[in-house]
Amino acid sequence: MIISRSNNSIFARWWWSIDKYLLSSVFLLILLGIFLSFSASPAVSIKQGYSNSYHYVIWHILFSVSSIGVMFAFSLLNLKMVRRAGVLLYIGAMLFTIATLFVDDGNKGASRWIRIFGISLQPSEFVKPLFAVLTAWLLDIYLKTKDKTLWLCVGFSLAITIFTLLKQPDVGMSVVIFLVWMCQLVLAGIPLWLLFLLGGALIGIGVLAFFIFDHVHYRIVTLFASGGELPFQVKHSLMAFQNGGIFGKGAGEGIVRSNIPDAHTDFVFAVAGEEYGMLFCMLLVGILAFIVIRSLLIASKEKNTFLILSLVGLICIFGLQGIVNMCSTLHLGPTKGMTLPFISYGGSSTWASAMGMGMILALTRKNVSAEDKDE
Q1: Contact present, 238 and 227 (Cβ < 8 Å)
Q2: Range name among 100-114, 249-263, 351-365 with the lowest pLDDT average
């Protein structure tokens, strides 16, 4: 289909302003996620008693296709709409996240899920990208007005978010949000002494979590384990990478998908390593790295403070989520139930990634609301 530059429709304006390199990379990531679901999901469906071995494959395709619509809708927004949507949706996502603490739809000892219209959702997944936009908005106002009371708002938004996540508990997501928050503060020009103070606070939170939460204590201890002391899933994950080698054992030839309960979610990277090898894994890493680096390069050329802070915050969340997932799979970090964006199975995580990536595509569009960028 040929779209004329003289066409003034919404889609035409979107098409000629969107960063097609980023868009193509995300679509490729989504296609690879669907491709990998055919390897990782059937064995899990059978083990969980589903009559259709493609139960999770079908749902993964549905989540992926619907996420494209979510991503497209958010990529149409201008800067003002990104601000408003980020703040309003953050409030909604936080209310639902707080509600998970009072409803009985927990899983694996955590209260992170809530049923809405019969669908089980994890609202905290949506908090991550929306929190980055909220913080960017508050810091942008501060830099324009120098109103120091806004620092209280910035600190309060972090405190209430971290407190709610720790109550679930979700220490990993809390750490990711704290790191992104610090990154945005650095870009906003905070004093060096405050940066060290915040770094010390992060270490302090980590030490407290080690002694307070049993699952955190276990994961930190097992991070330094080796041989027979390795956790079951990590041990089989490392074996999968060893079995796969450079080129992999071939589609359907892997055994890790039958041994690991979370092969289609937390450990899908191990399935990719065993069946398609190191080169395929490098392709996945390369696509993720390209999306992050290109977004940061675009941000470095901008002058609008809100655009820079929100774009950097959103892409850092995207990148950190991928790093945490792959590191836990490779025993380079503590195991954490954090999905690989667009690759792992999961409705909430896929839709939240699509929402965040949609806002990234909106912020990286050419001349996106130019009158707003010059404010």
Answers
A1: no
A2: 100-114
**What are the CA-CA distances from residue 239 to residues 39, 232, 244, 248, 332 (Å)?**
17, 11, 9, 12, 14
Of 322, 321, 325, 318, the closest CA to residue 355 belongs to 318
pLDDT value of residue 107: 55
Coil, strand or helix: which one is 117? coil
For the chain, the domains span 20-367
Mean pLDDT of 167-193: 87
Q: Does residue 271 contact residue 39 with C-beta atoms inside 8 Å?
A: yes
3-class DSSP assignment, residue 168: coil
Q: Does residue 171 surpass a pLDDT of 90?
A: no
CB 112 within 8 A of CB 168: yes
Look at strands 119-121 and 114-116 and give their pairing: antiparallel
Buried-state track 58-71, b at ≥16 Cβ within 10 A, e below 16: ebbeebbeebeebb
Can you give the pLDDT at residue 84? 93
CB 248 within 8 A of CB 277: yes
Unique residue bearing structure tokens 């296609």: 31
246 Cβ contact partners less than 8 Å away, ≥ 6 residues apart: 277, 278, 279
